[in-house]
Design goal:
By secondary structure, this protein is mainly β. It has one domain: Hypothetical Protein Pfu-838710-001 (Beta Barrel), CATH 2.40.320. 10% of the residues lie in helices and 48% in strands. It is built from two helices and nine strands; from the N terminus they run βββββαββββα. A hairpin with a 2-residue loop joins strand 6 and strand 7. The radius of gyration is 15 Å and the shape is globular.
Length: 155
Amino acid sequence: MGIEIERKFLVIGDGWRDAAEPGRRMRQGYLGRLEKASVRVRQADDAAWLNIKGATLGIQRREYEYEIPLADAREMLDELCTGDLIEKVRHDVPYAGHVWEVDVFEGANAGLVVAEIELSAADEPFERPDWLGDEVSDDPRYYNVCLVEHPWRDW
């Protein structure tokens, strides 16, 4: 069973950049949005995945991810995905025993920067870096599946 426990925050300032590893350019799109799940295709540099994620709010959701051929992913992104694609650069930022994923959005969501942390338990403690802003884990507007239909630039 695939369970993802993840918290999401807005990023304030550029203080995270000093510790950031080189970014990975990502393109992702959605093949469909079902009542109980979303189906996503993601390309990151020279690798690609198909992802099924439960359509629930909060920090804990079902998630299943499978590597797929890069050529298939490119074709699905270009021909089958609905709405705009999500374009972003993801940076891994180690901090106090955890690795934060900082996403710098481009395209229709340019200007939006969020940080996510994956946890092993919903109540796992973690130290907040000073560049972390408000938590948006329970705000569906910041879910990538929503940003496709309602880009940040239109808020």
